[in-house]
Every structure is written in C-alpha cells, then in structure tokens.
Automatic annotation (TrEMBL):
Residues annotated as transmembrane: none
Example of a GO MF term: acyltransferase activity, transferring groups other than amino-acyl groups
Pfam families to which the protein is assigned, alphabetical: Acetyltransf_7 (PF13508)
CDD domains given in the database record: NAT_SF (cd04301)
Domain of life: Bacteria
N-acetyltransferase domain mapped to chain residues: 7-197
Name under which the protein is recorded: N-acetyltransferase domain-containing protein
Species per Swiss-Prot/TrEMBL record: Micromonospora rosaria
Length: 221
C-alpha cells in the first residue's frame, strides 16, 4: 500500500472486481467509444459491467491492477516487455459471453488496438477510470504517478491508447501524442507514448508518425 499526495493506493484483489467494474462502466458510459460499441444506451450499463468484470479478471491474472482506498478509481496495466502470445481461446470466449450481440464490435476494437500497438518494450495502460462524482480530485493522476515511479526506476516506457479529446492530461505526465487510429465509422483512438527519463527510443518513428500537439490542457481527472 502506498500513500501518494494524500491518496492511498493499493493493488486490487478479486474481492474488488465487482465494485471496480461499476467504476469502469460508469466512467466510460458516455465516452465516444461506448456509443460505437453499444449504440443502445439502455444496454450499455449491463454489457459494460459484464465486459469490465472480464477485463479485471484478466488484468488480475496477467497484469497489474491498482485502486484507491474507497475503490472509486482504477488503473489496469499490462507489461509488454516482449511480444505477447496470441489471445487465448478462453479470452475470446469470455469476451463473447460478456458482450453478447455486441461481441463482434468488441472483438474488432481489440484487434485494431493490437495492430496499432508499439513493438518497443513498455507497460501498457489498458484502462484508467475514476467514478464521475470523484473526478477532478487527482485520483487518476495519483494512480499514474504511482506506477510511473516504478517504470522510471526500471527504465521502462509506458503506452496508452485513448479516445478522450482532452489529451493534455497525459501530456502533462510525460506522454507524447502520435496520429490516431480510427475505428470504422467511429471515433479516433489516440496513441500516446511516455519514454521515461532514460530517453528510450520513440515507439512511433517520426518519419512515419510525426508528433502532434495536444489540443486541450484541461484536466480530466
């Protein structure tokens, strides 16, 4: 357990999954990608809760999940220090079971995210969420600072793909923005890379993906 800027951070356990799935489902309910994945907003809370329950179970087994004392914020990380193995059939089955008739769009999204993933060794921030009523209090920043300190001590980079238009949040934490992927008939997905203090090589060569500026400096968490 770590106390960062008056925020108590601890590693999540299976007992936290239901509460943290609620946080993720609520935080992302109105996001651009949510409307693309689950156009019917009446289906969204149930589908997202089931999906994020599966996400958290996978993260606890294969990655690292951090939360705060009242479980109002969560960060899901995966180490990508070497090429990952192909997705296990059990993952595809759990994804299909969780998402039902929306399963093909979820599978397409995951496949496109994987195609756009950098090969340079790094830790991947798969999900960062703060319950809406608790946003703006520094919880997301505290969660990322906590993990970034570990990465900086090890000389490891970080990567996130985000659909948020307010990318200044990540830029202030050391991330660089590269041109986005675009979901078919859907929102842009911005890939962001944090090289860390060691000046690790860029994930996206500037000759292919020149850096672009963030368009907003408004804090989002």
């Amino acid at each position: 357990m770590t106390i960062t800027a008056r925020v108590t951070i601890r590693q999540a356990t299976p007992d936290d999954v239901d509460a943290l799935a609620d946080v993720l489902a609520e935080a992302f309910h109105d996001s651009a990608v949510a409307g693309w994945l689950i156009p019917d907003p009446t289906d969204r809370p149930t589908i997202y809760h089931r999906y994020f329950t599966a996400v958290l179970a996978h993260g606890l087994k294969h990655g690292h999940v951090d939360t705060v004392a009242d479980r109002s914020a969560v960060a899901v990380w995966y180490p990508r220090l070497r090429p990952p193995p192909p997705p296990a059939p059990t993952h595809q089955a759990s994804l299909a079971e969780a998402t039902g008739r929306y399963g093909p769009l979820f599978a397409l999204m995951e496949a496109l995210f994987e195609v756009g993933h950098p090969d340079t060794p790094h830790h991947h921030l798969a999900h960062l969420a703060v319950r809406p009523v608790r946003q703006g209090r520094g919880l997301g920043t505290a969660l990322l600072d906590h993990h970034h300190r570990r990465l900086d001590a090890q000389g490891v980079a970080a990567y996130v793909a985000t659909t948020s238009p307010r990318r200044g949040f990540y830029q202030r934490l050391g991330y660089h923005t590269c041109p986005p992927l675009t979901l078919p008939d859907g929102p842009a997905v911005w890939r962001m890379w944090r090289p860390g203090p060691a000046g690790l090589p860029a994930a996206f060569p500037s000759t292919v993906f020149p850096p672009v500026d963030c368009f907003s400096e408004d804090p989002i968490r």
